[in-house]
Design brief:
It contains no helices and 21 strands. By secondary structure, the protein is mainly β. The protein is globular and about 55 Å long. 29% of the residues are buried.
């Protein structure tokens, strides 16, 4: 078999930073991997209006991972949640990488969250992303009122990474107020709501339960007043029919869905 011309390997995405795109806005994202030459845009699994994107810059190093920076615009009617993303190049499509589409304001984590005794104060609601570095504990400070309910969610395992997030909320004296690991239906991720008995500043810690990680992995921490539902009962409805559903983590009331 004789072949002529240049043969290119299929593009491969190892990392998307940030792994979350805000609905109705433009997010600047960096894609890292191999053979990301001649990038022209992205494809997503959104069933509605497709996203639009433009290439800002690229660094096609022969000694390290390729890097492409894109501005990705997500339409305002895009469904929230996890979706697939592929990089489109002149030589073909990359592998599918999972991204989160969210409506909360995106806040990048900074180095101080990994220093013992230091934390990053954030305003609620917020959506934070950071690298899943091994043997690290990230700390975020929040201010709450007496009786305020705050919902927490970490997305890490659902990005397809071997990440097992653990959330610990402490008061300023260091006492544990609430701690959460795995939740049913979310793989190793967690989503829950907590009502604070007193006002003040609290520290939210995020780490891998085994202190493992990888700098190519990222997690997203969501905090706010969103409904912390995990499962719907029943979990299926036929198209064209109306079903009655219950979200046990949120309310005892049933609602109809067509």
């Amino acid at each position: 078999l004789t072949m002529s011309g240049r043969v290119s390997a299929a593009p491969f995405i190892e990392e998307i930073d940030p792994p979350v795109l805000r609905r109705g806005a433009v997010t600047r994202a960096t894609l890292r991997g191999d053979d990301l030459r001649q990038a022209v845009g992205v494809w997503t699994s959104l069933p509605t209006t497709p996203v639009s994107s433009s290439v800002v810059s690229s660094n096609l190093s022969t000694r390290g991972p390729n890097e492409v920076v894109l501005d990705i615009t997500v339409p305002a009617d895009a469904p929230l949640g996890l979706h697939g993303l592929r990089l489109a190049t002149n030589s073909g499509l990359s592998n599918v990488h999972i991204v989160l589409i969210d409506e909360l304001p995106l806040t990048p984590a900074v180095g101080d969250v990994r220093v013992a005794g230091k934390s990053l104060d954030v305003d609620l609601p917020c959506c934070l992303r950071a690298q899943c570095r091994p043997a690290s504990v990230d700390r975020y400070g929040i201010h709450v009122a007496t009786g305020q309910t705050v919902a927490f969610e970490v997305v890490g395992s659902r990005f397809g990474k071997d990440y097992d997030p653990l959330i610990t909320v402490r008061d300023e004296s260091g006492h544990i107020v609430v701690q959460r690991d795995n939740d049913p239906g979310l793989f190793y991720d967690c989503r829950f709501a907590h009502t604070f008995e007193s006002s003040g500043r609290f520290i939210v810690e995020v780490r891998d339960a085994r202190y493992e990680g990888n700098e190519a992995w990222h997690y997203v921490l969501r905090m706010g007043d969103f409904p912390a539902a995990i499962v719907a009962i029943p979990s299926v409805v036929q198209p064209g029919n109306t079903g009655t559903f219950w979200l046990p983590e949120v309310s005892a009331e049933r609602f109809a869905l067509t």
